[in-house]
Amino acid sequence: MTTTGPIPPEVDGVPDAPTGRLTSPHPAPSTSVGGGDVPDPLTVGRRLRHVRQESGRTLGDVAAEIGMSASALSLIENGKREPRLSVLNALAQALGTQLSELLTTAPPSRRAALEIRLERAQRGEGYDALGLPRVKIGPRLPTEALEALVGLHEAMAASSAERAATPEHARRANLGLRERMRAADNYFGEIEDEAAQLLGAINYTGGPVGRVSVDRMAAHLGFSLVHTGDLPGSTRTVTDLQHKRIYLPQPEAGQHDSRSLALQALGHLVLGHDVPVDYAEFLTQRVEINYFAASVLMPQEGAVQLLRQAMDAKDIAIEDLRDAFAVSYETAAHRFTNLATRHLGIPVHFMRIGQDGVIYKAYENDGVIFPSDATGAIEGQRVCRAWTARRVFEQPDLSQAFCAYTDTRSGTYWCTAAIDRTPAGVFSVNVGVRYQDVKWMRGRETTHRATSRCPDPTCCNLPPADLADRWSGNAWPSARAHSHLLAAMPPGVFPGVDDTEVYRFLDRHAPA
Ligand SMILES: [Zn+2]
After folding, report:
1. What is the distance between the terminal CA atoms of the chain, rounded to a whole angstrom?
2. How far is the centre of ligand 1, averaged over its atoms, from the C-alpha of 18 (Å)?
3. CA–CA separation, 64 vs 111, rounded Å?
């Protein structure tokens, strides 16, 4: 990995966006998972210059020996041109060294490491936007000045990351993600392909993907999975890139399926993620690893086969998908949204809401209108009381999914909802389709039906007149704040993660 920063831990407490494959705004580094490290041209160039200067040779001298112009060699040393392997070979010979010496990923000296960091910082888009001149990085730049410039650049990057992590920014990032996922029908073929490849590598033939299979996939990528009881409280998993270990909580310690956590951690590697530069990229990566984990646990081929058979029988049910792949109802419901439109031609919507009706996650491409604020954000908004997602909480028997029709301002929908009890509270998980698509779904014979007139305030926002007459002016409730939605995102590359805690943890567990 060329990732030099900290370890990608997984954070709790950040609202999950719905899943989807998104093109990262930042090119992934040239890493090969499980393979060797490939240094970038800048590192190769600095190392080359270091070796040449050690040998006391001039640029022109060495260039002449291998039949190249001094300016061309200078471009290579400055990392502005990527040398062919044959050129590097000739250079190694001329300098009396090994090719491997030139291809080592580590910078040759502390000074060189600083030079590389400054070069990278000056090449960043953020620096261009400032319209400032680039400092020439050469032998005449004092190490002290170099040190100060690198320090300033990096402090500035950290502070802009902190600024970016405001609730306002988080909401906009969520909105942007949802729009891109909707445009793709929540289906991302590249991630499906990566998942299929990894499954192929361990000779997966069908059925649920168990713990042993996940272990094999990790091993195939050169990683081992280590369960531990003392993960830092601010993380879900921690990956030690140096020793190629993924630390996971003890299976009984949390509500999370540890297969899913392990696959999400592997997802960062398989999808070539780099340390996120801002909150939007952090969110994108979260969405991608969630998608990746789901597409491994419920492989496309088997899941689509099951869904097509169910469609033929007009008997599609989320529960069957859940049971066939031994996953949670929510994972199955979410995965259904990936495949339903692409493979079955059925537009869908998905929601996860709290007992108070507040949206935690939602996705739609079937025209259902979620409540939203002025910026278009839906997280933290309360859905109509008439919606199935909320009515499910009032059902006396929750042993099976609750199905109901709802007439809304954008048409009639049929929805199926289930209750999910977690240590963080009680949620409802919902999948819905348009009235014309209900013919494919199990539970369509339900007689439950409701009308939603929201956003008309008389639908469910204003209290009934008799209650209002009795209590208006005589009630003073104390509001419970939704801190996860309204509080500023904690600063840091991985929002909310305590780096000290993570490094101490790694120190404790690293092999001697
Ligand atoms: Zn309503």
Report:
1. 21
2. 24
3. 27
Interacting residues of 456 by C-beta distance below 8 A, sequence separation 6+: none
CA atoms within 13 A on the CB side of 57: 20
Per the rule left: phi > 0, alpha: psi between -120 and 50, beta: everything else, 111 is: alpha
Report the percentage of the chain scoring pLDDT > 90.
40
What is the DSSP annotation of 369-418? -----TTS--TTPBPPTTSHHHHGGG-S--SS-EEEEEEETTEEEEEEEE
What is the spatial distance between Cα 356 and Cα 262, in angstroms, rounded to a whole number? 32
Q: Ligand 1 centre from 390 Cα, in Å?
A: 10
Cα–ligand 1 centroid distance for 450 (angstroms): 10
Buried b / exposed e across 316-346, counting CB within 10 Å, b at 16+?
A: bbbbbbbebbbbbbbbbbbbbbbbbbbbbeb
pLDDT digits (tens, 9 = 90+) for 236-277: 899 998 899 999 988 764 445 689 999 999 999 999 888 877
CA 387 / ligand 1 centre spacing (Å): 8
Which residues are paired to 434 by β-bridges? 413
Using alpha carbons, list the distances in angstroms from residue 502 to 60, 237, 510: 48, 10, 12
458 Cα to the center of ligand 1, angstroms: 8
Cβ contact 290:264 at 8 Å: yes
Residues 445-495: tens digit of each pLDDT: 999 999 999 888 888 888 888 888 888 888 887 766 554 554 445 555 566
Among 144-153, 178-187, 418-427, the least confident range = 418-427
Whether the pTM exceeds 0.85: the reply is no
**328 Cα: distance to centroid of ligand 1 (angstroms):** 29
**What digits encode the pLDDT tens for the residues 300-327?**
999 999 999 999 999 999 999 999 999 9
- C-alpha of residue 445 to centroid of ligand 1, in Å: 24
Contacts of 371 (CB under 8 A, 6+ apart): 359, 378, 381, 382, 383, 384, 454, 455
Helix H, strand E, coil C: the string for 430-482 is EEEEEHHHHHHECCCCCCCEEECCCCCHHHHCCCCHHHHHHHCCCCCCCCCCC
